[in-house]
Each structure stands twice: as structure tokens, then as C-alpha cells.
Design a protein that fits this description.
With about 300 residues, this protein is of the alpha+beta class. Helix content is about 35%, strand content about 30%. The chain starts with a strand and ends with a strand.
């Protein structure tokens, strides 16, 4: 098969930082290598003046395609892939919901999935500087614009961006990675996220794959991950970010309907080709479980 793997930063998407470009190159190399080792031809846009046009053109030349892009761009790009070829990623409607952090939180909450509570303005106003919250853009990805703030700081203008404010949950930053097929969900690994807090701002610096947190806790994270995939109608590779709270509860803080940076580590410890699993999710049957071997820590700095 000819597979298009389009990664936004490498492909010429605008406003890419050095760290995002490094992440993009690592993800693209990981997926490209895996698809090629399973006998497929891979084509990818590189440093294009118009990334969207390149995705449109290359997807028409492909038997299937997958796109990695910022949340606010991914829905439109996914629609192009759906129009032109077989989409190996999440459906565009799922991507649209996940791009809206407020709507995602609401949908998950309605389905009984633990999420940080969105804190209304009047409550923050009443608590003032005593309350501690998480403030993040309603639309967008990456952790660079996520802050831990007090009540008064939630009212700062921030260039008129649309933010949501949730309760702050103290705990372990983790993620789950899974591949979702038509009739089953295959958990891959639970990962530790390396997060640095500087002046209240959160910075993602890499991860640890896999992360062992105890059998019962891991079962709970996997159980919730499967519920998330069902609630949002996810397909293909999905990454779910959690805070595992000091109360022993795993709270979903973000859903990434696409390959995430963790795939770089997962590919090194998984005793399967990640590309084969992505293809089997779309065209075949997923195995009941996968095994890992070894341990990998990756850092972006």
C-alpha cells in the first residue's frame, strides 16, 4: 500500500517552535519506518509552502493516510483525507470535539468519566486569590499555554484568547496510548509525562514508556481509556492525558485523536509494529493484547 503520513511541523505548517519540530521529526520517522518495515510505501509532505494543499494532493495519490497536526488544524485536514482516501486516524467529527477542550470535558462528564470540574467565574471571583486552578486555551494543543493560577490570575486578558478554567488536581501526570478498531480497543502502554512547571506555566519535556503504577491503578486507567474512546467515537491511534490524583482517581485532562510523542518510545518497547496495529484497526482485527519489552525515557530538551 501507499500510505501518506503527514506531520504538520515537518510538512511546513506555520508557527512551529524548535521543540515542536523535534517532536514532529521523531514521530514522522517512527511511523514512516514502521510502515516501511511492514512492506508499505510512505509519502510525506516536507517543508511545503501550503501544507493543506500538499495533504490534499498526496492523499489523492495514496491508498490510505494519517495526519498529525495541531488540534485547531486537524479537523479540516482529516476531512481532506476522508474525502480523498482511507483515513487511518480518528474521524473528523471526533477530532472536532477533541479540539474544543470545553466540549470534550462536557461530553466525558456526561458519560460518567472523571474529569476536572470546570469552575464558573462567580466561584473564582468569590474565592479570589485563595483558589488554585488550571487555565488552558479552549482550543489548541501542547502544554505551553497551560497555567496553574490563582483566582485573580484567571481574569488576565492573554490577548483575548478563549480559555477554560478547571479545578487543579494534584497528582501524577500520565497518559495512555491505545489503538481503536471497529469493534475493539487495544491498550498499548501507560506512560509517565515529564512536566516542568516554570512560573506557573506547564512545559512538556518528554516521557517514560512504559510507566508502571500498580496493577489496580493500571486497570482503572485502561478502563477509563476505553470509555473515552467509546464516548468520543475514536478510531486508530489515540493518546489520553490524565492526572492520577492523590485521591486514587484518574482524571482525564485531554484527548489527542492522533499519534502523540509517546509513540516514539512505544515503538521501541512494543513487540509489534505500530504501523501494523494501525492498519489492522482499519482493515482487519486487532490482537487481544500486546506485550512490551524494555523501558525507554525520551527528553525533548
Amino acid at each position: 500500500m501507499k500510505i501518506m503520513v503527514a506531520e504538520y511541523a515537518v510538512g511546513g505548517g506555520a508557527d512551529k517552535s524548535d521543540s515542536l519540530l523535534r517532536e514532529g521529526k521523531a514521530m514522522l520517522a517512527t511511523l514512516k519506518g514502521s510502515f516501511e518495515r511492514t512492506g508499505n510505501e510512505v509519502i510525506s509532505p516536507v517543508a511545503e509552502d501550503d501544507f493543506e494543499a500538499a495533504v490534499d494532493t498526496l492523499s489523492k495519490e495514496s491508498d490510505a493516510g494519517i495526519v498529525i497536526a495541531p488540534d485547531e488544524e486537524l479537523c479540516q485536514l482529516t476531512k481532506l483525507v476522508e474525502l480523498n482516501t482511507v483515513n487511518l486516524g480518528c474521524p473528523s467529527e471526533c477530532v472536532k470535539i477533541c479540539a474544543d477542550k470545553k466540549r470534550t470535558t462536557e461530553v466525558l462528564g456526561e458519560n460518567g468519566i472523571p474529569v476536572p470540574r470546570i469552575v464558573p467565574e462567580e466561584e473564582r471571583e468569590e474565592e479570589g486569590a485563595k483558589g488554585v486552578y488550571v487555565k488552558k486555551p479552549r482550543y489548541g494543543c501542547a502544554s505551553e499555554d497551560v497555567f496553574i493560577v490563582n483566582g485573580r490570575e484567571t481574569y488576565e486578558d492573554d490577548n483575548n484568547q478563549d480559555y477554560i478554567v478547571t479545578e487543579f488536581i494534584k497528582g501524577e501526570d500520565i497518559s495512555s496510548s491505545l489503538v481503536v478498531g471497529t469493534s475493539s480497543v487495544l491498550p498499548l502502554t501507560i506512560n509517565k509525562q515529564l512536566i516542568r512547571v516554570d512560573g506557573g506555566r506547564l512545559h512538556y519535556e518528554g516521557g517514560e514508556v512504559p510507566f508502571f503504577m500498580g496493577e489496580e491503578a493500571e486497570k482503572e486507567v485502561i478502563r477509563i481509556s476505553k470509555k473515552v474512546a467509546a464516548a468520543l467515537h475514536c478510531k486508530g491511534y489515540v493518546g489520553i492525558d490524565f492526572v492520577f490524583g492523590e485521591d486514587g482517581q484518574a482524571y482525564v485532562v485531554d484527548v489527542n485523536p492522533r499519534p502523540t510523542t509517546s509513540v516514539v518510545g512505544i515503538a521501541k518497547v512494543l513487540k509489534y509494529e505500530i504501523a501494523d496495529l494501525i492498519l489492522r484497526a482499519k482493515f482487519g482485527t486487532l490482537p487481544r493484547e500486546v506485550k512490551t519489552e524494555g523501558h525507554f525515557i525520551f527528553k525533548l530538551s
